[in-house]
Amino acid sequence: MNILLTNDDGFDAPGIRVLSQELQNHGHSVIIVAPLTQQSATSHSITLFKPIKIHKIEERIFAISGTPTDCMIMAEQKVPIGAIDLVISGINCGQNMGEDILYSGTVAAALEAMFLGFKAIAVSSAAYSDVKYHTAAKALCAMLDNGIHDILEQDEIFNINVPNVEPAEIKGIKITAVGHRRYDNFVREEIEVDGSRVYFFGGDLPIWEKRPNSDFLAVNAGYISISPIRPDFTNRSSFVHLENWSTSHYED
Hints:
This protein is of the alpha/beta class. It is built from seven helices and 13 strands.
């Protein structure tokens, strides 16, 4: 297949390089269109008020001076990518589960690819240090060998999270729902030299609600989690009572 790789960790991040090599080892043709710099937690933002540059790093590696969403737009509009069978965003350093998919540039790039008409998968490794990218890369290539891309429906992506263990320690695959988490002590305070206070986001590990069949429970138990995501923001169950309210208060 002709596969376009992107991410939010940057074009030279170890996750995307390991995945690129593994895909090529499996006979796939790979082109990378990824951010020039670290873009984690940029969500689905696009660059509006400064110019975007395309840096040709190598023959099939392009770095974009913008967000992961910018990368997909530029790939579709300006980068000579040729025909693409699949877009893969990752391998991300750190899991993208629960509400974190809303902040994730990795997931956003896959969603933007989907909006642009590509089949797309996001893949993350559930660790921030000593990350075993080879485990996620080998697992994903095995899934591609078995045709996971062929069962992607229109207007959906697969969000895949892989435990940070050796390949032989993976217990299997679970199809999961997006979980729920909260953070305690998420805002860290520090004192500057001049005595002023500054704040940083990021602190304690998330506290996960143990919802049945969640992405967190699967990964925590040693399974690869695959969550099918379809971004439909309309709550159709509210139509009836909203229409009743509208009719009673605003009827001519």
